[in-house]
Amino acid sequence: MSADQPTTSFPKNRIKVLLLEGIHEAARTQFAEQEFQVELQRGALSEDELVDQIADVHLIGVRSKTQVTERALASARRLLAVGCFCIGTNQVDLGFANQRGVPVFNAPFANTRSVAEMVIAEVVMLARKLGDRSSMLHQGDWRKSAVACHEVRGKTLGIIGYGHIGRQVGVLAEAFGMNVIFYDITAQLAMGNNQSVTTLEKLLSSSDFVTLHVPATDRTKEMIGAKELATMRRGSFLLNLSRGSVVVIDALAKALKEEHIAGAAIDVYPKEPKASSEPFDSPLRGLPNVILTPHIGGSTEEAQENIGRDVATSLVKLVNSGATTGAVNFPNVELPLVPGTHRILNAHRNVPGVMGAINRILSECNANIHGQFLSTNDETGYLITDLDQSVSADVKQAIAALDTSIKTRILF
Q: Which residues are catalytic?
């Protein structure tokens, strides 16, 4: 550490990190380099187990199975942040975490390429019925036929949700010679020759392949049901590598059995096993030209390493500088470090008069401010203040005593 780089006031070797669900070694390495205490567990935890283990933890890392509920967060007396080592954050009670002054970080870009490549691979597999052909041959059944098998060149791929993954899918699909259209509820800049359409119905009725890349929200819940499947072209294909709540599985199974939909690739489900030892059941099992995968769209070594590194970087920056840039539920603040100062971090309820009260404290303590930044959301404000070391303890104590304060600490 350089001479002008301050150290944290709380000893780093007492920072406790709990990483669940087999998070990549890259994360553990990054925390270990900071001399944090790191505990790794391969599996997910139930709510009761999490409540027992989270009490003295400063940083927790989860993937998609562990539910960080209000009860778990309420029991976490020392929790500074939650890291979701994946894209989604719906496994965390974001609102309650915000009220507790706990930012939640994720990795919105790290597995983009892995998911996009899998989509394109499955488009080709569905067009050629490769999943069924491989399964038959494993069973000794030589079924060589070109019937209902097609090239993807010249076909239309419809992308629902044109975010980071959707755009990557569009670029790769164009390289295969496909026509690409997309639908999103917000205006998006088209990549290459991708074309926007104005309605979901237009996309469904115009596409040979439809792929979903949307978050889990009230608006996207069961957005593809019997009506939407009937709107799709007869003989078209559906792919869902987004969220299990988006597609009505029973309606999809019916459309497949009636041969209105020619095939599907599904990676996420409304109800998924919590562990590999649990059985998986679905109305889609055994249907022809249906590719079922166990939520592995982003499960490549490259993606998991990128996720581990990206989320760990955000958590380390929070501990070392108070930065919340990239937090999904919390005001985003990041200030350059000022040598020779102490940094006070304050999360507070976003109500009128807070800054007036804090500024009075600073004035009464004759504090010389070297840097200050405030950001707010609907419920919470987050303030970083760099000030002279001689008064920092008194200022911190007085700010923490305000009835509006949620969490206050001196960083250096």
A: 243, 272, 295
